[in-house]
Design a protein that fits this description.
Elements lengths: L7 H5 L4 H15 L5 H12 L8 E4 L25 H9 L6 E5 L4 E7 L7 E8 L9 E7 L4 E7 L5 E7 L4 E2 L4 E3 L22 E5 L4 E6 L7 H10 L1 H4 L4 E5 L15 H4 L4 E3 L2 E5 L1 H9 L8 H14 L5 E6 L2 E3 L10 E6 L6 H9 L5 E5 L8 E8 L5 E10 L17 E2 L6 H10 L1
Parallel strand pairs: 11-12, 12-17, 17-18, 18-21
Antiparallel strand pairs: 1-20, 2-3, 2-9, 3-4, 4-5, 5-6, 6-7, 8-9, 10-11, 13-16, 14-15, 14-20, 19-20
Helix pairs in contact: 2-3
Length: 440
């Protein structure tokens, strides 16, 4: 990270170096007490949190392996079984203090019993009581917890395919992991992840429908490269409607980003004035060059974009350790604006991040556009994520290789996000509110 992360100099040098060294020493001390790979990864996640950058994260290797290949999935471990006696269950249901007790997920997919189960690697185990997922059965250990203070635990959870999901869990007396695991009998469980829109976008699809004679709706759940053809096909197929409808609702809730080129078909429909885009610098290192070069083999990236990637690689070569300007800022001018749609409401929430925020920075400059909903995630100033497989554990480190010139201009958005002009809350039908706003 010190060598390759584009934000390291901003966040861990100068007067911030002492805090960084202290955090590192604390993690190193605790790392010496654990051997379980999941706990090691959880500590790495905690260490990465120092940078407060959502583009730095750890994932299990081959996390997207097909379910039939469970036994060979990297990160999977043999499933331990602990028998839950009726007496144990009765005692746990009565517990109201301490972390031991019966917990369920907010959607009731799982119910687990958290019991004291001290081994060399853990203090508590979360044992399946009931499961709607066919890959989990009663008595199997789904969660291992190692306490490091009164309210915080290293957590090694296991996903549906039994691969490792390492985390740092916080216990508030009623729930674990910000309301993900809720103690049975809790009157008012907290909403999972604080989602204010009450909405879960289907990330792999696009959606479109007419809401009224005046308003059309389009939802885009992701700007991932895999969604490129769907986005492009939708705007091509619906061009006649868009060329005549007065109002458009563009629903980006839950859209965590992807690649800028995926949203290029939207630009012409939003355009009213030349759009200013901030410049970008990349940190030139051998690892980062290798990470960028790997994109040249990606099947979902258009050839014209691969030519740009090749140019960036050429700029990085021979300039080790330097920030290299790969874009000095740009002004996007399109020949003539499209008269329709005349007004566009873009629905946003706290899960809008990365390339979605880049799109919003462009969209906000249009006279047609009104942002509605809640503030975005604030994950964009350091971007263009590349990855590195860890040499001794089944995990992959992902980190940002570029730095926006917005940072030096004092216009960074990390950990702040972009604010809507019209705020909407959990008790409202956001699509209906947007339709009414546009048609008034």
């Amino acid at each position: 990270m010190e060598k390759n992360y584009a934000g390291f100099r901003d966040k861990a040098t100068g007067d911030k170096r002492f805090s960084f060294d202290s955090a590192t020493a604390d993690i190193a001390t605790r790392a010496a007490t654990v051997n379980k790979p999941g706990f090691c990864a959880a500590l790495m996640k905690e260490w990465l949190d120092f940078f407060r950058d959502g583009h730095n994260y750890i994932t299990a290797a081959k996390a997207n392996a097909d379910p039939p290949a469970l036994a060979s999935t990297a990160g999977a471990e043999p499933v331990e079984v602990i028998r839950l006696t009726p007496q144990t269950m009765s005692l746990l249901r009565a517990r109201r203090k301490g972390v031991e007790g019966i917990y369920h997920t907010s959607d009731s997919t799982y119910t687990i019993a958290i019991i004291q189960s001290k081994t060399a690697d853990r203090d508590y185990a979360g044992v399946i009581v009931t499961s709607k997922a066919p890959t989990w059965r009663r008595g199997q250990v789904k969660l291992a917890l190692k306490r490091f203070d009164a309210t915080h635990f290293l957590a090694c959870g296991y996903l549906r395919d039994h691969s490792i999901d390492p985390e740092i869990f916080t216990f508030d007396g009623e729930s674990i992991s910000d309301g993900f695991w809720i103690r049975d009998g809790t009157a008012s469980p907290k909403p999972v992840h604080g989602r204010s829109s009450g909405f879960q976008q289907q990330w792999q699809t696009v959606q479109a429908r007419r809401l009224s004679a005046q308003t059309y709706y389009i939802g885009i759940g992701t700007f991932d490269e895999s969604n490129t053809w769907r986005v492009d096909s939708l705007f091509h197929a619906d061009s006649a409607i868009l060329a005549s409808v007065p109002n458009l609702i563009l629903d980006l809730r839950g859209n965590g980003g992807g690649s800028d080129f995926v949203y290029s078909p939207l630009r012409a429909w939003l355009y009213t004035v030349p759009v200013i885009v901030a410049g970008v610098d990349v940190l030139a290192t051998e690892d980062n060059i290798r990470g960028w070069a790997a994109l040249l083999d990606a099947k979902d990236i258009p050839e014209e974009n691969k030519a740009t990637i090749q140019r960036i690689i050429g700029q990085m070569q021979g300039r080790p350790g330097r920030m290299v300007e790969i874009n000095d800022g740009d002004t996007i001018s399109l020949s003539g604006g499209r008269p329709f749609p005349q007004k566009i409401a873009v629905l946003i929430d706290e899960d809008c991040a990365s390339s979605t925020e880049q799109f919003l920075l462009e969209a906000m400059q249009s006279r047609k556009v009104t942002l509605m909903g809640q503030h975005t995630a604030g994950i964009l100033d350091y971007a263009n994520v590349r990855d590195e497989a860890l040499p001794c554990l089944p995990f992959i480190l992902h980190y940002a290789t570029t730095r926006s010139q917005r940072v030096d201009a004092g216009k960074g958005i990390d950990n702040v996000g972009l604010k809507p002009q019209v705020v909407l809350g959990a008790g409202q039908d956001w699509v209906e509110e947007a339709r009414r706003y546009l048609e008034k």
